[in-house]
Amino acid sequence: MAQVKLKNVVARYDDFFAVDHVSLTIGAGQFVTLLGPSGCGKSTTLRIVAGLHQPDEGVVEFNGRDVTGVGPAQRNIGMVFQSLALFPHMTVAQNVAFGPRMKKAPQAEIDRQVKRMLEIVRLDHLADRFPVQMSGGQQQRVALARALAIAPSILILDEPFGALDRKLREAMQVELHALTRQLGITALFVTHDQEEALMLSDAIGVMNKGRIEQFGPPQEIYRAPKTRFVADFMGMTNFLTGEVIDCDASSAKVRVGGSVFAAPVSGVLGRGLGVKLAIRPEKITVEDAGEADAASLEGSIRQITYHGNASRYVVDLPGGEALVALQSQSRAAELAVGSRVRARWKAEDISVFQD
Amino acid sequence: MTDALQAWSFKILVWALYVFLLAPLVCIIVVSFNYEPIQSFPPASWSLRWYGEALRNTGFTHGTLVSAMVALCATLAATPLGVLAAIGLWSSRSRFKPAIEALFLAPIVVPGLVTGISLLVALAAIEVRVAPVRLFVGHVLIVMPYVIRTTLASLAQLDPALKEAAETLGASNRQVLMKIILPLIRPGIVAGMIFGFILSFDDVNVSLFLVDARTTTLPIAVMSYLQYSFDPSVAAISSLLIAVTFIITIALERSFGLKRLFAGN
After folding, report:
1. Model confidence over A142-193: pLDDT tens digits?
2. Do A89 and B183 touch (CB under 8 A)?
3. Which helix (H) or strand (E) holds A198?
4. What is residue A259's predicted lDDT score, i.e. its pLDDT?
5. Would you state the pLDDT for residue B86?
6. Residue in B159, B170, B183 nearest the CB of A85
7. Helix, strand, coil percent content, chain B, rounded in steps of 5
8. Å from A324 to nearest chain B CA?
9. Model confidence over B240-264: pLDDT tens digits?
10. Quick check: helix, strand or coil at residue B216?
11. Between A74, A75, A79, which is nearest B165 by CB?
């Protein structure tokens, strides 16, 4: 297992920066995910690590060795492709044996490795099948076994679960999590699915417009997003426009419409500064409009949708903005479209971003 | 009601098409069993004598040999060239790629007569006046575009990630070609070879200018024979060709599955 490092890597298509000065360290045995919307540069970054794309600038290092100009065949990487790219004319066992065979391993060694890999992904009973004769989940596991069979320096996965249905995807995520931890594999994973990223990763890099906006452990990315983009992408989808009226080193008072909210901050913000307050839908409580108070916002319900374990409320605010709140059934069962309601939340659930 | 009408008229149309395509073949096979020395249909009396005549006709037998040799050599030479050209085009990112592809496929579009005359003049200019060599060069031009076209069709269906997957697993360019690409596009290559071989064997237009008195292909031998005599030996040799083609087709269907060959994969 290797440590992989990107230093100021740039990939350009004419004037467009697909990857814009990205630096990234993947520790040995670490599972790192690049998370972002399509077109954010995450796939190109992954292809640069794999050696399938030459960066225009910057350096790629495996264990401190510069491999920037080294082709994919010499990098010793295991890659799981979005399309899986199983060799259709080879059986499962032949697919898994392909890597060791190319590395000129002795036949006995190849046989042993194929057997071990197929046992790990629990497909040893299907070794003589062809890929077309297998289900999506089984094909996925073959792709994984094939990539791992060369004992790669790093395992690279390019949105491998995108084509699977939800249930199978969750099963594969659990399996991949167990497998990578069990084998202590260095892995680079690319996805646009934040839940998948949170669940699998030791560290997440959230990418936007070719840059890594924030890099850190999943808990940190989820709880303390550093930029508005990261907050939005991690599910903090309510943004209220406000103005700082008072601030010290750890908390600020922000006026939104006629109300004032306390919010935690990490540095002093100037008075009069325009800011956005970000709140997760599930952190907002919606209740019957009672006495006006300064720590809530009044509005009227525009839409209610049922989500099984919760209901989702869209609340129009007087200033023209709207809030989305997600909460469990019982608490607001009598609310109907058009009801006047109060939306409130706890100060610690707010993140403040400068406008 | 209208649906049933549509279904029926479609069926009738399809059968009419089959009749249109196959009736002449049936006709010539029937005529070949004629006893009379003229190609009358239906024959008044039956015999196999024209098969004997056809096989005794050295123009036909020699022509068959020449045609088979030329088609075989041209196919064997054009196949590696065509496959490599197709793979080169497939992996190229040049902006001239469409132009180059059009150029490679041009012999299909250029009238055979033009190709034939041009080759005759050009080859004479470099002092190549031997008919077998001229025929070989001309027929490579006939076969190659078909190999390129069917190979390209097969390549277009390949997931580009297959190549990359093999590379990441440590395969060199040559190994990617030999172990991944070639096995997967083989149906396309074989289809192109068969198609090319048949068209080469069948060709009149290009060959017309490249043969000489001693080396003549079968279609040209048949054509010149027809200018002077109209006996059923021509029908007999044609029937033999139909039989051979039929047997090859069945054999290919059994071993490869022709449908798969021509669909690309």
Report:
1. 999 999 999 999 999 999 888 788 888 888 899 899 988 888 899 999 999 9
2. yes
3. helix A194-200
4. 83
5. 96
6. B159
7. 80, 0, 20
8. 41
9. 989 988 888 888 778 776 666 555 4
10. coil
11. A79
Give the nearest chain A residue to B162 (CA atoms): A85
Min Cα separation A78/chain B (Å)? 7
Q: Is the ipTM, as predicted for this complex, more than 0.85?
A: no
Rounded to two decimals, what is the model's pTM? 0.80
**In chain B, what residues touch A72 (CB-CB under 8 Å)?**
164, 167-168
Would the CB atoms of B172 and A79 count as touching at under 8 Å? no
Alpha-carbon gap: A162 to the closest alpha carbon of chain B (Å):
16
Best mutation target among A101, A102, A155, A188 (most B Cβ atoms within 10 Å) is A102
Strand runs (DSSP E) across A114-200, as ranges? 154-158, 187-191
- Own/partner contacts of B36-43, CB < 8 Å, gap of 24 or more, are B36/B232, B37/B231, B37/B232, B38/B230, B38/B231, B38/B232, B39/B230, B39/B231, B39/B232, B39/B234, B39/B235
Q: Summarize pLDDT for A84-130 with one digit per residue, the tens.
A: 999 999 999 999 999 999 999 999 999 999 999 999 888 989 999 99
Q: Which residues of B touch A83 (CB under 8 A)?
A: 159, 161
A339 phi and psi, to 5 degrees?
-60, 145
